[in-house]
Structure formats: structure tokens, C-alpha cells
Amino acid sequence: MGKVFTPYKNKWIETFSQQGSHPANYEVNLKKLTKWENKKNILVHDFYAQIGFEKTTPALSGGSKEALKRLTKFEKKMQDYADLRNFPSVDGTSNLSVYIRHGNISIRDMIRAAKISQNQGAQTWLSELIWRDFYEMILDVHPYIENESFKRDYDKIKWPGEASHFRAWCEGKTGYPIIDSAMRCLNETGMMHNRLRMIVASFLCKILLIDWRKGEKYFAEKLLDYDLAANNGGWQWSSSSGCDAQPYFRIFNPYTQSEKFDAEGKFIKQWCPELSALDKKTIHAPHKLGLLKPVKYPDPIVNYEAQRVKCMDVYSVVKSEK
Ligand SMILES: Cc1cc2nc3c(=O)[nH]c(=O)nc-3n(C[C@H](O)[C@H](O)[C@H](O)COP(=O)(O)OP(=O)(O)OC[C@H]3O[C@@H](n4cnc5c(N)ncnc54)[C@H](O)[C@@H]3O)c2cc1C
After folding, report:
1. Ligand 1 nearest atom to the CA of residue 198, by list position
2. 157 in the Ramachandran plot: left (φ > 0), alpha (ψ -120 to 50) or beta?
3. Shortest-distance atom of ligand 1 to CA 226
4. How far is the centre of ligand 1, averaged over its atoms, from the C-alpha of 128 (Å)?
5. Residue nearest to atom 30 of ligand 1 (CA)
6. Closest CA to 81 of 72, 91, 71, 67
7. Could you tell me the domains of the chain?
8. Is 265 left (phi over 0), alpha (psi -120 to 50) or beta?
9. At residue 275, does pLDDT exceed 90?
């Protein structure tokens, strides 16, 4: 099995066009299923609480009807997916991951929907569904990645990050508005936009210099769409320790990412209301206002430029990618 996404995707599409998306002819033996007995008399509405879920605001409607409704809604705007999918304040993605995770929708139905709309947006969306599949395959073939870096060399890294910085990252109090708004959104809704997941993950590993496994674990506790393969794949991609990950010297700049993907500061204002009086020029880096910075908002816990330099040093134990 390959370790690089593009050849995997090409093979996937080639196989799909030969075999189609119909289920393979598996033999079904219902007797092999385990029967669940409600010995502790768990009430249905208590069930999710008992297995560790907390209520979120807004609450999501569950079930396959809701999932299909969302797919139908998304099909109408799939053609715009390639252009809109990176902007957290725009409803440009399918929002189906929670439904996939809970078995409310068939991934084959989603693939069929993408194949019917043959436009650029549909092709980009199909690619994302193949990324999901790719990470499932990688975890299946290399199960050690659950706890270790895919590129084992990366486990030589000694992470100097501080516990107080990790706490600030979790609580959305880093003084970096794009990070703080993303983390506050995660804490309250159990969801986070993909672009923001990439920004906060890169920030944790490469700017706060904290082991990716701590961030991965925090996401696992909070995400309603938590999926071991996709979460591990996303974290290892961001920390550069994964297969076909971004090279370690590529570090997301939280300021420019914020200016590019939340240009008007709409998303930031939603989750960091103490910044709502700022204009689109100052909202991405309020510390630059000096004494005029809103008092309730923290100063940056670290200096981005200085940490960037430190990151190159911390990662220098990895020799494989110069
Ligand atoms: C650090 C990090 C952690 C992540 N953790 C998870 C996780 O626990 N569970 C999860 O489902 N996704 C995870 N992702 C992938 C991605 O962020 C979510 O799948 C996406 O945001 C869900 O929104 P959507 O359903 O609107 O996606 P859409 O953009 O509409 O995409 C459709 C589907 O494709 C799949 N998909 C899209 N992007 C990815 C991707 N990069 N990797 C794998 N599958 C993808 C998902 O199943 C998604 O529902 C993670 C990404 C990163 C960078």
C-alpha cells in the first residue's frame, strides 16, 4: 500500500470507475452480531451522557433523515465547494462528518452524489472523501501510529512546550484571535472548521512546541465527529510526522492565515466578542494596538517570530527532509 496521497487517489478513482460504488457481495451472518442487553436500565436519553457526550449549543438533530437532508442541501451548492470550503464564517462545506461518525449516512451515497455532479466543486469534495479513506487505510496498515509518529524519526523530538501554554490553547486564551476563536468554538459546539483545525494544530506543535499527541487527545475529547484515523492523520499531517505530511519547515503563520481566511474578522468576532469593536485591519493582531488593545483580551503568550526560529531548532533532530 502506498504512503503518498495522489497515487492512492488516482488508483482509487481508477478502481471506482471499473467497479462502481455498489457494495461488495459480502456474506451477512446476523448470528455473529453481539446482542446488546440493557442490563443497567440505561434510559435512551441518558445513553450519550453515559458514554461521555456532553450537550452542546446549538444542539444537533441526529439520525439518517437529518443526514440525508443535509446531503441534499449540500448537493445544491457542491459546485461552489472548491471556492468556499476554506472560510470558517461561510457555510461552504457539507457538515456531514458527525453523521458519518455516528453511522447515519452511507459514505457510498456521498460518493455517488459527488459523481453525479461532475463539476470542479464535486471533484474537490470527492478528493476529501478519498482523504478520509486514505487515513483509514494508513491506520489499518500501520496501527502503531495510534501512539507513535508515522515517521519514527520524529519521535526523537523533545518537545519543550509549557503546560501553561497548553492550558491557554485549550481555553482559547493565547492572545492569537484566530486560535482563540477556533478553540472557543470547539469547546462550545464540539465542532471546528477544517481550515481552523489545520491552523490550531500547526500552532500547537510548531509555535507552542507541544507534542501533537496532546492536541490529538484534546480533540478526541471534544469533537463530535471524532474519528481516530482522520484525527490522527490530521494531527500527524500538521506536525509533519505523518505520511505525506507537509514538510516540517512549513509553518502556518496564524496572522496571515487569519487575514486570508477570516478577512473581515467575522468568525473572530463571533467567538471573541471582546474584540468586536476592532476593524478588519487590527483584529488579527490586537496586541499591535498597544494600550488601545481591548483590556479583556490577553497579550500573545509567545512571540510568533521567536518561536518559529526555535521550532527549526527543535525539529533539527529530524534529518530526513532537508
Ligand atoms: C488536526 C485535524 C483533526 C481532524 N480530526 C477529524 C476527526 O476527528 N474526524 C473527522 O471526521 N475529520 C477530522 N478532520 C478532517 C476535517 O477537518 C473534517 O472531516 C471536516 O472539517 C468535517 O467537516 P465537513 O463534514 O463539513 O467536511 P467536508 O469538507 O464537507 O468533507 C466531506 C467529508 O470528507 C471527509 N474529510 C474532509 N476533509 C478531510 C480530511 N482532511 N481528512 C479526512 N477526512 C476528511 C470527512 O468525512 C468530511 O465529512 C481533522 C482535520 C485536522 C486537520
Report:
1. 53
2. beta
3. 8
4. 8
5. 94
6. 91
7. 5-141 (1.25.40.80), 154-317 (1.10.579.10)
8. left
9. yes
Quick one: pLDDT at residue 117?
74
Residue 24 pLDDT: 66
Count of other CB atoms within 10 angstroms of residue 243: 20
Distance CA 288, CA 301 (A): 14
The catalytic residue positions are: 128, 131, 159, 194, 212, 235
Count of Cβ atoms closer than 10 Å to residue 224 Cβ: 16
CB atoms inside a 10 Å sphere around CB 149: 22
Q: Residues 185, 58: contact at Cβ < 8 Å?
A: no
Can you tell me the distance from the alpha carbon of 222 to that of 169, in angstroms, rounded to the nearest whole number? 14
- At residue 160's C-alpha, the angle toward residues 155 and 165, to 5°, is 120
Give the position, in ligand 1's atom list, of the atom nearest the Cα of 95: 26
Q: At what angle do helices 177-189 and 254-261 cross, to 10 degrees?
A: 70
Distance of CA 35 to the CA centre of its chain: 34
Q: Which residue CA neighbors atom 49 of ligand 1 most closely?
A: 97
| 171: phi then psi, degrees, rounded to nearest 5 | -85, -5
The region of weakest confidence among 167-171, 247-251, 283-287 is: 247-251
- A 10 A CB-CB count for 285 gives 19
Q: If pLDDT is split at 50, 70 and 90, which confidence band does 321 have?
A: low
Q: What is the pLDDT of residues 206-246, one digit of tens each?
A: 999 999 999 999 999 999 999 999 999 999 999 999 998 88
